[in-house]
Amino acid sequence: CPVVVAPRNSSVAMPPPADIVKVAIEWPGAFPKLMEIDQKKPLSSIIKEVCDGWSLANHDQFALQHADSSNFYITEKNRNEIKNGAILRLTTSPAQNAQQLHERIQSSSMDAKLEALKDLANYSRDVTFAQEFINLDGISLLTQMVESGTERYQKLQKIMKPCFGDMLSFTLTAFVELMDHGIVSWDTFSVAFIKKIASYVNKFASDISILQRSLAILESMVLNSHDLYQKVAQEITIGQLIPHLQGTDQEIQTYTIAVINALFLKAPDDKRQEMANILAQKQLRSIILTHVIRAQRAINNEMAHQLYVLQVLTFNLLEDRMMTKMDPQDQAQRDIIFELRRIAFDAESEPNNSSGSMEKRKSMYTRDYKKLGFI
């Protein structure tokens, strides 16, 4: 077999080193810059190099973020997630951005305030930004805005109702996103704040975004703090939640059942049976069958999960009764159990009952009762 020798001047393309990623970096008003990022270099050095390429001073006030819909900041912890061909954006640092938004959401201009709250709701999904905003006591600022918001803008609601609704929606969205990072304890919130959120469940039934965020906040309060459970339970009743199950928005229905489950789960044992009785009086089962299960739409995974949790919590109340032994001297109980077995199994086994020994019939009864859970 002849041996083929490659010419000396031929070159074989080698793959780029694993530590090098090729990206495009955007900056407003400039053409994107193609760049190779060395993942072994400190991120601050890379940012300085990018800033120098556009003659931008104070590189420590800049950061890189993904240019996709997430807009998440790139940090030393997550930089390894950058892929070849990624599009990045040079932007203000998380600390600078948090400081600017902290000031903007306190603007006296309603339009400026609304735009700032919209940006805050978007940025708060990023834990890097969230940490900086929380460091500025941003959570307290948002809660103060919620507590005083309705009164402060009461006169404006008649002429700017859509604007007020959007402002409140973005404020609650930002609050939920910030709290979801688990940086701040739920035990820090006032009764006034809880009362305000609970009131939104009734006042803003027609505003889906406000209602959804309010229900989400109530659920988290109940699940994450025993003290808040007691306060929320005083402010919201099952009767106030039931109407939200009779609507057509499945997301609202899901959050409503989630709040009911949370209240059920955190309630003391003596209160759980009381809650179950109230749910029965309010015909919760019938409402769920009519407006959720038999509605002309598919049940999503989260709704299926919440329905399962509700079912388990309800069945758990019957455990003591289920484990109670039957009194063998009580003929009425014996008759009920015998009738239950007959209804469940005699239709399929009746032809064989007239024949066969007593032992065989006794064995069959034992098997049937075991299937019913009595043995």
UniProtKB/TrEMBL annotation:
Q: Which SUPFAM superfamilies match?
A: ARM repeat
Cellular component aspect of the GO annotation: guanyl-nucleotide exchange factor complex; plasma membrane
Give the record's GO biological process terms: actin filament organization; cell motility
Record-linked InterPro entries: ARM-like, ARM-type_fold, ELMO_ARM, ELMO_domain-containing
The record places domain ELMO armadillo-like helical at 128-293
Q: This protein is called what?
A: ELMO1 protein
Origin organism of this chain? Molothrus ater
